[in-house]
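Quick one, tokens below. Sequence please?
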């Protein structure tokens, strides 16, 4: 029987790459791909992939539940930064549970914990907690900072640019990035000490 594997975030860098890689194997693996997007006009054109529009994104629980009907596994890309980002994540997890999704693979963050210094790592921890409470089998990909995001940290100062974070001595674990080839060997530019992506966490490694 064919399983439906849905992905969000496919109009973006990370989800787009994951979707393209899965599309290359989906037909051979009894897996049907479903791309869940806010705007179908911007969905990638991938062979055999179904496109389902859910214009309200993660904020629209009922809309997302409908878009996920019949889905076995959901690759859930974290939302863009927003004041209500955590609420959106929790709504998305609840929508997956309501739709009967059996497994969620969520893009979390390195060091996700309720008491993390990094605000977004606390949000990811809260999302992981909701997944744990949902009854769905789940995997959190605790990716580090994406290397291709570093230029966005730069603040113009006196005709130059200053990168003031991460704080302390500035050491940071960077992930290869969402737009670059994903081999860790290719990640280490001048601003990168080393790649410290923690591959996944889950309540049960067999999940
Ligand atoms: N680890 C890091 O260093 C780092 C850095 C930046 C971002 N991130 C996180 O990682 C995610 C993926 O990174 P990326 O580089 O692929 O980002 P990206 O290119 O900006 O793509 C983000 C994707 O997520 C979708 N999305 C965002 N907010 C959504 C919402 N509320 N509801 C439904 N879909 C939503 C976007 O859909 P639309 O096209 O409809 O907007 C887009 O497809 C980001 O969304 C962000 O949460 C992590």
């Amino acid at each position: 029987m064919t399983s439906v594997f849905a992905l969000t975030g496919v109009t973006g860098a990370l989800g787009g790459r994951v979707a393209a890689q899965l599309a290359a194997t989906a037909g051979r693996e009894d897996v049907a791909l479903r791309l869940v997007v806010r705007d179908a006009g911007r969905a990638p054109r991938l062979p055999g992939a179904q496109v389902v529009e859910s214009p309200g994104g993660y904020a629209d629980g009922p809309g997302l539940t409908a878009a996920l009907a019949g889905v076995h596994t959901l690759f859930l890309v974290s939302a863009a930064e927003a004041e209500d980002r955590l609420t959106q994540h929790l709504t998305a997890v609840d929508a997956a549970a309501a739709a009967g999704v059996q497994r969620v693979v969520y893009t979390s963050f390195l060091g996700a914990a309720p008491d993390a210094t990094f605000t977004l790592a606390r949000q990811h921890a809260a999302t992981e907690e909701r997944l744990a409470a949902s009854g769905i089998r789940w995997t959190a990909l605790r990716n580090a900072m994406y290397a291709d995001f570093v230029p966005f940290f730069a603040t113009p100062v006196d005709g130059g640019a200053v990168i003031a974070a991460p704080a302390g001595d500035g050491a940071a674990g960077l992930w290869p990035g969402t737009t670059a080839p994903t081999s860790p060997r290719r990640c280490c530019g001048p601003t990168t000490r080393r790649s410290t992506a923690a591959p996944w966490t889950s309540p049960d490694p067999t999940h």
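The first strand starts at residue 3 and ends at 7. The chain has four helices and eleven strands.
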